[in-house]
Amino acid sequence: MGAGGSKLNGFFSIRGSRHKRIRVVAPLTPKGYFPVCVGLGNKYKRFMIHTTMLGDADLLELLCISAEEYGFSNPGVLKIPYDVKRFEEVLRMKNKHQTLRIMIA
Protein backbone atom coordinates (compact mmCIF):
# COMPACT_ATOMS: atom_id res chain seq x y z
CA MET A 1 0.00 0.00 0.00
CA GLY A 2 2.83 2.43 0.68
CA ALA A 3 2.81 5.73 2.50
CA GLY A 4 -0.32 7.00 0.78
CA GLY A 5 -2.50 4.14 1.93
CA SER A 6 -5.37 2.63 0.05
CA LYS A 7 -7.12 4.45 -2.78
CA LEU A 8 -10.35 3.71 -0.96
CA ASN A 9 -9.32 5.96 1.95
CA GLY A 10 -10.36 8.95 -0.15
CA PHE A 11 -13.83 7.53 -0.60
CA PHE A 12 -14.42 5.89 2.78
CA SER A 13 -12.55 7.59 5.58
CA ILE A 14 -12.99 6.76 9.23
CA ARG A 15 -9.53 7.84 10.45
CA GLY A 16 -9.81 10.14 13.45
CA SER A 17 -13.55 10.39 13.08
CA ARG A 18 -16.51 8.64 14.58
CA HIS A 19 -18.54 9.09 11.41
CA LYS A 20 -18.00 7.53 8.02
CA ARG A 21 -17.34 10.06 5.29
CA ILE A 22 -18.38 9.08 1.80
CA ARG A 23 -17.26 11.23 -1.13
CA VAL A 24 -19.58 11.07 -4.10
CA VAL A 25 -17.78 11.22 -7.43
CA ALA A 26 -19.74 12.76 -10.30
CA PRO A 27 -19.73 10.82 -13.57
CA LEU A 28 -17.03 12.06 -15.90
CA THR A 29 -17.97 13.87 -19.05
CA PRO A 30 -16.25 12.41 -22.12
CA LYS A 31 -13.93 14.69 -24.06
CA GLY A 32 -15.81 16.77 -26.62
CA TYR A 33 -19.16 16.50 -24.81
CA PHE A 34 -20.99 18.70 -22.32
CA PRO A 35 -23.64 17.58 -19.82
CA VAL A 36 -27.19 18.89 -20.04
CA CYS A 37 -30.15 18.18 -17.77
CA VAL A 38 -33.48 18.34 -19.57
CA GLY A 39 -36.78 18.43 -17.74
CA LEU A 40 -39.55 20.36 -16.06
CA GLY A 41 -40.13 20.78 -12.34
CA ASN A 42 -37.96 18.42 -10.32
CA LYS A 43 -37.75 15.65 -12.92
CA TYR A 44 -34.60 15.89 -15.03
CA LYS A 45 -32.78 13.50 -17.31
CA ARG A 46 -29.07 13.93 -18.02
CA PHE A 47 -27.71 13.90 -21.58
CA MET A 48 -24.17 14.23 -22.88
CA ILE A 49 -24.17 16.36 -26.04
CA HIS A 50 -21.23 16.59 -28.41
CA THR A 51 -19.92 20.09 -28.98
CA THR A 52 -20.54 19.79 -32.73
CA MET A 53 -24.27 19.89 -31.94
CA LEU A 54 -23.94 23.52 -30.79
CA GLY A 55 -24.57 24.53 -34.42
CA ASP A 56 -27.96 22.77 -34.49
CA ALA A 57 -30.84 25.28 -34.71
CA ASP A 58 -33.19 23.30 -32.45
CA LEU A 59 -30.57 22.91 -29.72
CA LEU A 60 -29.67 26.61 -29.95
CA GLU A 61 -33.32 27.52 -29.50
CA LEU A 62 -33.50 25.37 -26.36
CA LEU A 63 -30.30 26.96 -25.06
CA CYS A 64 -31.87 30.40 -25.55
CA ILE A 65 -34.92 29.27 -23.56
CA SER A 66 -32.57 28.04 -20.83
CA ALA A 67 -30.76 31.40 -20.75
CA GLU A 68 -34.09 33.23 -20.41
CA GLU A 69 -35.19 30.91 -17.60
CA TYR A 70 -31.98 30.57 -15.57
CA GLY A 71 -29.64 33.30 -16.86
CA PHE A 72 -26.04 32.86 -17.95
CA SER A 73 -24.48 32.43 -14.51
CA ASN A 74 -26.35 29.27 -13.51
CA PRO A 75 -24.06 27.14 -11.31
CA GLY A 76 -23.70 23.44 -12.04
CA VAL A 77 -24.96 21.46 -15.00
CA LEU A 78 -26.77 23.33 -17.75
CA LYS A 79 -30.53 22.85 -17.34
CA ILE A 80 -32.96 23.06 -20.23
CA PRO A 81 -36.62 23.55 -19.23
CA TYR A 82 -38.23 21.25 -21.77
CA ASP A 83 -40.30 18.07 -21.65
CA VAL A 84 -37.96 15.03 -21.60
CA LYS A 85 -40.17 12.87 -23.82
CA ARG A 86 -40.44 15.62 -26.45
CA PHE A 87 -36.67 16.16 -26.30
CA GLU A 88 -36.10 12.43 -26.89
CA GLU A 89 -38.59 12.49 -29.80
CA VAL A 90 -36.70 15.38 -31.40
CA LEU A 91 -33.47 13.43 -30.97
CA ARG A 92 -35.02 10.34 -32.61
CA MET A 93 -36.32 12.38 -35.56
CA LYS A 94 -32.92 14.00 -36.06
CA ASN A 95 -31.21 10.63 -35.72
CA LYS A 96 -33.10 9.37 -38.79
CA HIS A 97 -31.62 12.15 -40.91
CA GLN A 98 -28.12 12.47 -39.48
CA THR A 99 -25.74 10.87 -37.04
CA LEU A 100 -26.29 12.47 -33.66
CA ARG A 101 -23.61 12.68 -31.07
CA ILE A 102 -25.73 12.58 -27.93
CA MET A 103 -25.50 10.10 -25.10
CA ILE A 104 -28.01 9.54 -22.34
CA ALA A 105 -26.16 9.53 -19.05
Please tell me about this protein's structure.
With 105 residues, the chain is α+β, with helices and mostly antiparallel strands. The protein is 27% helix and 25% strand. It contains 2 helices and 6 strands, in the order ββββαβαβ.
Which key phrases capture this entry?
single chain, 105 residues, alpha+beta, four-stranded mixed β-sheet, two-stranded antiparallel sheet, 2 helices
What is the radius of gyration computed over CA atoms, rounded to a whole number of angstroms?
A: 19 Å
The number of helical segments is 2
What is the averaged pLDDT score?
A: 75
Order of helices and strands: EEEEHEHE
Write a brief structural summary.
By secondary structure, this protein is of the alpha+beta class. It has helices spanning 57-70, 84-97, and strands at residues 12-13, 21-22, 33-40, 43-50, 78-80, 102-104.
Q: Helices, strands, pairings?
A:
Layout: E1 12-13, E2 21-22, E3 33-40, E4 43-50, H1 57-70, E5 78-80, H2 84-97, E6 102-104
Parallel strand pairs: 3-5
Antiparallel strand pairs: 1-2, 3-4, 4-6
